[in-house]
Specification:
Length: 272
């Protein structure tokens, strides 16, 4: 499983995103040529950023047949970290599929394309300010450090890390079925405003950012708003034999629970 790709919104150029994402994939794939017959499957963590393209209509429903074909041109015309990251994920995944065509390996290759990943981490940084880009906003809102609403990431499709992990394992353990396949893993739209609303309700004793409650998501279901871009994890549901994934509210609350277990009392925004 190759799960690493730069998601660092402090990077300043498209190439800082592009080169390690693409070259990292190709380098690891080239190393598989000497791995021997025991290698049965290669699973790439791609992203829905490889799928979502800015040229599609506002109400478009994306599937695994779609590709982000315009992201690089957009990012190079006027650099922004979000489009640059999306372009790098698309380029890196395409590099894998080109490699497959060129080498026709004996093992399977598959791609998992998750949305914004939340949920309790397996490992923690030394302090909350070093959390990754998808979990840091949850901490900032929960701890009261956020005085303005953090920016949403991309189209704000969400998925819990535990469901992403299950699909990686399934792809690895089912090489015949997963070979050559891409799998969207997204569960709906979960915004920073939704995070703030969930946490204010769960922790009324804490001073948590208010923002504009229920203004940019579907309360209760956290589904995609009607008439807006969407995507469905139909292939992933079928592969795993499930009808749904972990919901946004549970994912956020479990994330915060893991924060408190790791850094008890560090969030000091209890109301007096």
């Amino acid at each position: 499983m190759h799960t690493a790709s730069p998601l660092d919104f402090s990077l300043k150029t498209v190439d800082e995103f592009m080169h390690p994402a693409v070259n990292g994939n190709v380098s690891i794939l080239n190393s598989t040529l000497s791995a021997g017959p025991q290698l049965k499957s290669f699973v790439l963590t791609s992203s829905i950023a490889s799928i979502v393209d800015v040229s599609k209509p506002d109400d478009y429903a994306f599937t695994e047949d779609d590709w982000n074909v315009n992201g690089e041109a957009v990012a190079r015309k006027e650099f922004r970290a979000g489009p640059a990251y999306g372009a790098s994920k698309a380029a890196a995944e395409r590099a894998m599929w080109r490699w497959k065509e060129m080498h026709d390996p004996s093992f399977s290759l598959s791609a998992v394309n998750p949305g914004v990943v939340t949920g309790p981490p397996v490992s923690f940084p030394s302090s909350p300010d070093k959390l990754n880009e998808t979990l840091k906003p949850v901490w900032l809102i929960y701890s009261g450090e956020a005085k303005t609403m953090p920016a949403g990431i991309g189209g704000q499709s969400y998925i819990d890390v535990r469901d992403v992990s299950k699909l990686h394992i399934w792809c690895m353990e089912h090489p015949d079925e997963s070979n050559g396949q891409r799998y969207i893993v997204a569960n709906g739209k979960g915004t920073p405003q939704a995070v703030a609303d969930i946490l204010r309700k769960a922790f009324p004793d804490r001073d948590i950012l208010v923002g504009e409650p229920e203004s940019d998501y579907v309360p209760g279901t956290y589904d995609y708003p009607a008439g807006k871009r969407s995507m469905r994890a139909t292939k992933a549901y079928k592969a795993l034999g499930v009808k749904s994934f972990i919901g946004f509210e549970q994912s956020i609350l479990d994330t915060v629970k893991s924060f408190e277990e790791r850094w008890p009392g560090l969030a000091s925004n209890v109301k007096t």
